[in-house]
Amino acid sequence: MKHLIDIKGVSHAYKTKHGPLPVLDGLTVEVPKGEFCAVVGPSGCGKSTLTRLVSGLMRPDRGTVILDGQEVTSPRKTVGMAFQNPVMLEWRTILENVMLPLEIVAPEMKKSDAEARAMHLLEMVGLKGFENKRPSELSGGMRQRASLCRAIVHKPQVLIMDEPFGALDNFTREDLWQTMRDLRAAEPFTCVLITHDLRESVFLGDQVIVLSGRPARTQYVLNVDLPADRTIDILYDPKAVDMLHVLRDQIRIAQGRDGGLH
Amino acid sequence: MERVQKIAVPLAAIIAFLALWELIVWANNWPNYVMASPSDLPAAYARFWNLFLVMGWQTLWRTILGLALAVVFGTLLGMIMGFSKLARDALYPLLVGFNAVPKATLVPVLALLFIGQHDFNTVLMAFLISFFPIAVSVGIGLSTLEPEYRDILAALGASKFTIFRKIALPKTLPEFFGALKVSVTLAFIGTNLVEIVSPHGRGLGALFKSGETNGDYPLMFAVLIALAFLGILLYYGVVALEKIFAGWAERAPG
Predict the structure, then answer these.
(1) Residue A215: helix, strand or coil by DSSP?
(2) Which of A99, A245, B132, B190 has an alpha carbon 20 to 30 Å from B218's alpha carbon atom?
(3) What architecture (CATH level 2) is domain A1-78+194-262?
(4) What is the 3-state secondary structure (H, E, C) of A123-174?
(5) Domains of chain A by residue range
(6) Chain B partners within 8 Å of A154 (Cβ)
(7) A85 and B146: CB-CB below 8 Å?
């Protein structure tokens, strides 16, 4: 089977004052085209490193990252990124923020077309009417919605998200999950989501990958065989509850606390 | 209403200040060769109005030119220090040391180096005294740019220059203008330092000096007030520029 993202035996270590700190150790992840891959794991296990490797911002010490059949050696225009901090440029309006990637990826694109594209996305995430506001006038949840629009405005093949909903309150977070689900239904992109929220990983993911503690390797892969048009209620479905239990156990193992301590 | 308040309140404060000054001079019964009072000033302006215009202009253009040089040089230096840790480590002690040297001590040095070049000396001093805050704030603004800001564009393969132009530069503007407000005042100090100390000086500093030589206290105070006026003028010029280029950084009231 051909995967859009193929991470093969990737190992990486950071240089620190006290010598090398290995964060990834022989990590292998496969994401088929169009699939949503959620990655969970104990904190500090190297999840964010993974996003930087896939986006080409960093190269691994060993192993290869292959995106659409080509080894990733530098950043490419077919990737979109969203972070926990929605980093809006305060001197631009929301619309101008969303249009930013187009200025880099498609500078030849007509401004009216770029605006129309950005407006379409803002409408989809419920930010119509806010396009001319400054980021400081929006709530955290709204900024994160705008940040999602910016991440996919240039129609990337892959959307990489690093705990994008981590700083939001629970209800806002659940709203954002549904926004995410609707965006995916409308726009075909493959997705890698780093999260520490197991419910989020089950609600959004087609597969959930559990990373072990540092240095991280793939510890467990869960296939989420729930229907695509999920609502929040599905998290209370026995099937989903079972999955959450399995994931919880896996996290416990990853934290090195199976048996003994509990 | 808000508009009226914006002008009326500071105006009232200035009038209150002048009234207090008048009152203190009157209460102590100081003659005007000890301390001039505000009521002495109109006469001084009326008598020397043409000198005030000519010399005020000399002070103003030299200060602005010095400041302009400080903006260009300070920004460039700030960029170098902001982007290169090596340059930062190398230049910081040097800069701090240079900034610590009292600029008055440089007046005779410059006077000897560039004998007779009054305009050049004055502009140079205004520049030397005022580039430091700009260099430091631009440097800090750039070096503390959160990596996520950079990553938004870096992940799309944008060049370093594009990242600088679209993100680092605009993001540093509020710090830049903050520093520029400090530099405005410093540049005036630099200009006047040379104008007062150097012989056959020009500008308001020289007018101040001649007032001192002639024991004309009202003239000296009139010069001080004129300098304050120019300072306010230039400061609010910077504020206006800040509104245009970095108005986004201002929080909505409330």
Answers:
(1) coil
(2) B190
(3) 3-Layer(aba) Sandwich (3.40)
(4) HHCCCCCCCCCCHHHCCHHHHHHHHHHHHHCCCCCEEEEECCCCCCCHHHHH
(5) 1-78+194-262
(6) 156
(7) yes
Structure tokens at A110: 């007509």
Q: Sort out which chain A residues have CB atoms less than 8 A from B248's CB and list them.
A: 90-91, 134, 136
For residues A175-193, average pLDDT? 88
Give per-residue pLDDT as tens, A10-19: 888 888 888 8
Q: Helix B169-197 and helix B41-83: axis angle, to 10°? A: 130
pLDDT tens sequence across A34-76: 889 999 888 766 778 888 888 888 888 888 888 888 888 888 8
**Integer Cα distance of A224 and B3 in angstroms:** 62
The string of pLDDT tens digits covering residues B17-39 is 999 999 999 999 988 788 888 98
Q: What is the CATH number of domain B50-249?
A: 1.10.3720.10
Residue A76 touches partner B, C-beta closer than 8 Å: yes
Distance CA A186, CA B216 (A): 82
Measured in angstroms, the CA of B237 and the nearest CA of chain A are apart by 21
pLDDT bucket at B54, cuts 50 / 70 / 90:
very high
Asked if residue B169 has pLDDT above 80, the reply is: yes
**Pairwise CA distance, residues A38 & A17, whole Å:** 32
**Radius of gyration, CA atoms only, chain B:** 22
* Share above pLDDT 70 across residues of chain B, in percent, rounded to a whole number: 98
Angle at A75 between CA A70 and CA A80, to 5 degrees: 100
Distances (CA, A) of B163 to A104, B156, B157: 10, 11, 10
B58-108 pLDDT, tens digit per residue, is 999 999 999 999 999 999 999 999 888 899 999 989 999 998 998 888 888
**Nearest-by-Cβ selection for A55 from B148, B155, B251:** B155
Indicate the residue of A87, A91, A104 with minimum beta-carbon distance to B170.
Answer: A91
